UniProtKB/TrEMBL annotation:
This is Pyrroline-5-carboxylate reductase. GO terms for cellular component: cytoplasm. Signal peptide: none annotated. It comes from Streptomyces roseus. GO terms for biological process: L-proline biosynthetic process. The lineage of its organism: Bacteria, Bacillati, Actinomycetota, Actinomycetes, Kitasatosporales.
Amino acid sequence: MTCKVAVLGAGKMGEALLGGLVRSGRPAPALGVTCRRKARAAEIEARHGVAPMGNAEAAAWADVLVLAVKPQDMGALLAEIAPAIAPGTLLISVAAGLTTAFFEERVPAGVAVVRAMPNTAVLVDEGMTVLSGGSHASQQQVEQAAELFRGVGHTLTVPESQQDAATALSGSGPAYFYFLVEAMTDAGVLLGLPRDKAHELAVRSSVGASVMLRDCGTHPVELRAAVTSPAGTTISAVRELERHGVRAALMAALEAARDRSGELATSYA
Ligand SMILES: NC(=O)C1=CN([C@@H]2O[C@H](COP(=O)(O)OP(=O)(O)OC[C@H]3O[C@@H](n4cnc5c(N)ncnc54)[C@H](OP(=O)(O)O)[C@@H]3O)[C@@H](O)[C@H]2O)C=CC1
Ligand SMILES: O=C(O)[C@@H]1CCC=N1
C-alpha cells in the first residue's frame, strides 16, 4: 500500500513540497495537507487537487508527517497533534534551527524524527535537501525521508551538528544568488543599460555559470580563470570585488545565518 504523506502548513515551502509530491506521481488519495486559513485551503486544493484536512486528523491518518510551519508556530502545532501521533509515524521537520530533540521532547516517546533542510529550488525539481536523523530514527527512516525529497531534487545526509551550517549555505543559498543577480542588474543600469536588458544579461550569466558548474566537473577557480583574460576586463572587476571584501562579506553572512539558525532552537524551546 502507498505510504500516506501529509504536509502540515502549506506556506511557501509546504506548498512547494506538496506540489513536488504530486509531480513525482504520488496519488492524491495518499496525500494530505493542512492550512490555517480557509482561503488558503481553497487555493491549495484548486492548485494541487489535494483536499485539506485538520492537523490532528492528518496526524492520525498519515504514515509520514512533513512539518512545514515556521519555527515560532511549531510548539503550538506539536501540542495540537501530539496526542494523535501513532507510534510508527515518521516525523519530518523542515523548520530552520529546530533540533530533533525539540520534537522528541514534544511527541510520544520513541517517535522517529528526521530534520530536513530543503531549499526553494524544489519548485523546479532542482532542490537540495540536507537531512539528519534524530535519536529514534533508523537508517531506513532517514532513507525514506530522503526518498521523498529526491522527487524534487538532490539530498545529502549530515550529522545534525552540521545542520545550522547547511541551513546557512544551502537552505538560504538561493537568496544569495538572487541578491547577486539583483545587484548585477543595478550595476548594468549604472553602466547605462536599460533595466530589462540588464536583468536578462544578469540572469543568463547566472544560469550559464550554474549549468557549467553543475555539468563540466571543473573547479570554480578554474572556470573563473578561463573568463579572466590577462590585462582584461574581468581581472579589473575581480580586483574591486576583493578590495570591497566580497569574499569576507559572504563568510560573515553565512556565519550570521548559521548563528541565527542556532538561536531559533533556543528562542522557541
Ligand atoms: N522558505 C524557504 O526557503 C525555506 C523554509 N524552510 C522552513 O519551512 C517552514 C515554513 O517556511 P515558509 O514556507 O517560508 O513560511 P510560510 O509563512 O510561507 O509558511 C508557513 C505556513 O504555515 C501555516 N501555519 C502556521 N501555523 C499553522 C497551523 N497550526 N496549522 C496549519 N498551518 C499553519 C501558515 O499559515 P498562514 O498562511 O495562516 O500564516 C503558513 O501558510 C519554516 O519552518 C522554515 O524555516 C526551510 C527551508 C527553506
Ligand atoms: O530564512 C529562513 O529562515 C528559511 C530557512 C532557510 C531558508 N529560509
